[in-house]
Write a structure and sequence with these properties.
Length: 142
């Protein structure tokens, strides 16, 4: 039984797809797409040299274009802060006297325990303060 070249290319593409799933390395997916391009070339009647050239060209082009884009997206910080990062830098209103050890503020519509960044600083009820950090469930304010 003689298997046609395009079938071998598709088997190769599936073979490259397995390590893609197991290792989560996108380069294997790009090589699999190159193998599919080789299969298409074989199905259209291209000789083995053209099939290999198409496989290499498509694979290298995908790696050269997609990899830098993926790397750039992975290294970028999210545009919108969330969680406690979203609360840092916001203003709050003092509800109960805030000292270097304790106090209460209203921050983003919620009541938080708070303490002053400088232990000798005291903030009275009604004052506006800025949140500089969150430690556990306590806002650090100035």
């Amino acid at each position: 039984m003689d298997i046609e070249a395009w079938v071998w290319w598709l088997i190769g593409a599936v073979g490259l797809g397995i390590p893609l799933v197991v290792t989560a390395m996108p380069e294997f997916g790009m090589l699999a797409v190159g193998a599919v391009a080789g299969a298409v070339t074989a199905a259209l009647g291209g000789d083995i040299v053209l099939q290999v050239l198409i496989f290499v060209a498509v694979s290298v082009a995908l790696i050269a274009v997609v990899r830098p884009i993926a790397r750039r997206h992975r290294s970028q910080r999210p545009e919108h802060a969330s969680g406690i990062d979203a609360l840092k830098g916001r203003q709050a209103v003092v509800l109960e006297r805030v000292t270097g050890s304790d106090g209460r503020i209203k921050l983003a519509g919620e009541i938080w325990s708070a303490r002053a960044l400088n232990s000798d600083q005291i903030y009275e009820p009604g004052q506006q303060v800025d949140v500089v950090d969150i430690e556990g469930a306590t806002a650090i304010v100035v």
